[in-house]
């Protein structure tokens, strides 16, 4: 019971199951390296902060700002090496901005559904198993994505989500003390997912999600490693980026 | 050890507890001069503001926000008359289409005003009192203080949980239990004290302005009456409005109505209430807000709201809303009443298509087919391009010759 209460006290800690899949590609989708496609990147969702001793998220504006910049830079650098053109979505206003917001939310909801009901194999919905669909990755945001600002000049849309909570000193001390007593306390949270959407059909072509990512996004080098992990198994990856230490 | 833990729990909340509201012997003090555009300080506050900036970015593009310029300008005007022009400059109000009695404010000055609040308050003074309360939270930077209190509390609990589980003695477990209750209860009490402090601030602004400050107390008395009506329609005993539950987030409504009355400046009778101006500004939105409220399936509260709105006189909109309320509950006795209400709406405003539609459907269901069909035909004539025109024609076909 005390372990249970402890888990409740450390509520911000999510421990993903080991048997979880982390990435999937839509059947038949290929993006050869250097195919010269244009990828539209919508403003990534980035939040970086600390984790208090009790497990609360403590937002940190400075870290978030540098992470946002580092991730943008790393994205550009990485995609250029794949031969795809990465375009940041234009700043939009009025009706356009509302549509972007809705599709960002829709993408987040669909991604959560994929993570819950596709990547956890034992958790698949009946509709996703029937008719030999068990191994099929088939999700869509609908054709209307083509109406997003900037969509006409691009082939694919890339959405990114990133949340980091670095364990505070207090949290690490708690973890250490708990370990002495044989109690498990995790420190820090580093979750992220990235998805590629076909701007003609709205189909989700590829999704990668990881609840325990590496790379310190507050530093330029760490962000390169992080983006490498976020885009792991990205279709058309000529060679996986050399893992940074 | 028990005592030590309890003392530690008490300490966790002692340093920054908001000033308790004094017994309302005197009106709330006038606010200090406003220091101008406040900028966040320290890593926690800057972080919270940046997080609010992100949320506001999403909120500004949300489909739930009502962007009508006239309504927004009016609400901003009431807000500014509540807190004064200098304070008003630091707020960005958003009207959110949610049929709930609430408003909220984030650390960076984003104010969300729910349409359910606009539907319930009856005058500029009442609206101003709620918006002033929300601004009080902002000026006193309550979100930051509560964040810190919660962090102190959960830090303490985490250490206690680890140490308890290492010690393993039954006594330690009991102490931990006590401590957990005392920390969580302390956090809830802290939140209620913040609400009282925001009430005090809100009344200070109102007393300084030109609107009638006693309206603040009336908001809560009306809310109590609405809750009683809601409970009565369900056959429940009415909620206790005078005592707080252990984990309650706000002070009891009865307590608030009492002390808010005491805090109001005593010259209330000479002051402006703004009820007519408010009713005029809200009139174009009433049908939509009432529709949203009726769909909450809270018969007693919805009927209470409609009847109170009808106090100055029934309008076609209100009769139509009451017809909808009864028709959607849908027992045969309700349909008889609904037909009656729609009939009154149609008599007051013969061009109101929705009244004809409701009248027709209610009459057909109660067996008065010919009259009902006439009303439905009238509806289609008034609104040939109605989204449900095909369905209404189907009803006409099923009950007779079609056209």
Strand content of chain A: 15-25%
> Total helix count of chain B?
18
What do the pLDDT scores of chain B average to?
91
Largest interface: A-B, 34 and 33 residues
Care to count the β-strands of chain A? 8
For this entry, what is the oligomeric state of its chains? heterodimer
User: Roughly how many Å apart are the termini of chain B?
Assistant: 84 Å
What characteristic shape of chain A results from the CA principal axes?
globular
Give the uncertain stretches of chain B in residue-range form.
none
Order of helices and strands of chain A: HEEEEHEHEHEEH
- Main β-sheet, spatial strand arrangement of chain B: 1-2-4-3
- Structural class given helices, strands, pairing of chain B? mainly alpha
The count of domains of chain B is 2
**Parts with pLDDT < 50 across at least 5 consecutive residues of chain A:** 1-18, 240-245
Q: How much of the residues of chain B is beta strand, in percent?
A: under 5%
Major sheet details of chain B: 4 strands, mixed
Count of individual beta strands of chain B:
4
Keywords (chain B): Hydrolase, Metal-binding, Metalloprotease, Protease, Signal, Zinc
Signal peptide (chain B): 1-19
InterPro entries (chain B): Mito/Outer_Membr_Metalloprot (IPR051156), Peptidase_M48 (IPR001915), TPR-like_helical_dom_sf (IPR011990)
Domain Peptidase M48 (chain B): 96-260
């Amino acid at each position: 019971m005390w372990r249970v209460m402890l888990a409740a006290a450390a509520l911000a800690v999510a421990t993903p199951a080991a048997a979880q899949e982390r990435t999937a590609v839509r059947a038949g989708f290929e993006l050869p390296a250097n195919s010269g496609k244009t990828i539209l990147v919508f403003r990534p969702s980035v939040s970086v902060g600390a984790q208090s001793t009790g497990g609360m998220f403590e937002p940190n504006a400075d870290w978030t700002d540098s992470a946002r910049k580092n991730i943008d830079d790393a994205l550009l650098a990485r995609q250029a090496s794949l031969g795809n053109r990465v375009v940041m979505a234009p700043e939009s206003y009025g009706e356009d901005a509302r549509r972007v917001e809705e599709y960002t939310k829709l993408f987040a909801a669909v991604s959560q559904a994929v993570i819950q009901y596709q990547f956890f194999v034992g958790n698949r919905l009946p509709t996703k198993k029937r008719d030999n669909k068990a191994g099929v990755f088939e999700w869509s945001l609908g054709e209307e994505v083509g109406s997003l600002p900037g969509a006409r000049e691009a082939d694919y849309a890339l959405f990114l989500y990133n949340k980091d909570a670095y364990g505070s000193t207090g949290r690490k001390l708690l973890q250490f003390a708990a370990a002495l007593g044989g109690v498990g306390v995790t420190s820090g949270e580093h979750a992220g997912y990235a998805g590629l959407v076909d701007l003609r059909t709205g189909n989700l072509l590829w999704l990668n999600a990881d609840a325990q990512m590496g790379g310190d996004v507050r530093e330029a080098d760490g962000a390169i490693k992080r983006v490498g992990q976020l885009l792991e198994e990205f279709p058309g990856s000529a060679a996986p980026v050399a893992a940074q230490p | 050890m028990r005592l030590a833990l309890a003392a530690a729990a008490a300490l966790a909340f002692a340093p920054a507890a908001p000033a308790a509201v004094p017994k309302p012997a005197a009106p709330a003090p006038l606010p200090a001069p406003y220091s101008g555009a406040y900028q966040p300080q320290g890593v926690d506050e800057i972080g919270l503001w940046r997080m609010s900036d992100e949320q506001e970015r999403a909120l500004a593009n949300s489909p739930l926000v009502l962007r009508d310029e006239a309504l927004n300008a009016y609400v901003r005007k009431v807000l500014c008359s509540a807190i004064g022009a200098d304070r008003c400059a630091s707020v960005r109000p958003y009207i959110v289409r949610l049929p709930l009695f609430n408003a909220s404010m984030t650390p960076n000055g984003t104010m969300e005003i729910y349409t359910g609040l606009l539907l319930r308050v009856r005058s500029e003074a009442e609206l101003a009192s709620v918006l002033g309360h929300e601004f009080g939270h902002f000026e006193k930077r309550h979100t930051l203080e509560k964040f810190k209190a919660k962090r102190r509390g959960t830090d303490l609990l985490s250490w206690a949980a680890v140490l308890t589980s290492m010690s393993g003695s039954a006594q330690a477990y009991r102490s931990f239990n006590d401590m957990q209750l005392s920390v969580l209860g302390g956090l809830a009490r802290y939140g209620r004290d913040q609400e009282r402090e925001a009430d005090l601030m809100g009344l200070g602004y109102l007393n300084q302005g030109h609107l009638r400050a006693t309206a603040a107390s009336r908001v809560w008395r009306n809310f109590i009456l609405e809750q009683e009506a809601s409970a009565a329609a369900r056959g429940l005993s009415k909620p206790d409005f005078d005592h707080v539950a252990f984990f309650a987030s706000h002070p009891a409504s009865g307590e608030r109505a009492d002390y808010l009355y005491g805090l109001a400046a005593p010259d209330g009778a000479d002051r402006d209430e703004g009820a007519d101006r408010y009713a005029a500004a809200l009139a174009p939105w009433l049908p939509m807000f009432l529709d949203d409220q009726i769909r909450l399936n809270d018969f007693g509260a919805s009927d209470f709201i409609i009847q109170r709105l009808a106090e100055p006189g029934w309008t076609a909109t209100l009769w139509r809303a009451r017809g909808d309320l009864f028709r959607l509950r849908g027992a045969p006795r309700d349909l008889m009443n609904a037909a009656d209400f729609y009939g009154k709406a149609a008599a007051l405003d013969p061009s109101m298509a929705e009244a004809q539609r409701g009248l027709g459907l209610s009459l057909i269901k109660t067996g008065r087919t010919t009259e009902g069909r006439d009303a439905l035909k009238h509806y289609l004539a008034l609104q040939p391009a109605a989204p449900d025109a095909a369905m209404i024609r189907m009803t006409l076909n099923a009950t007779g010759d079609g056209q």
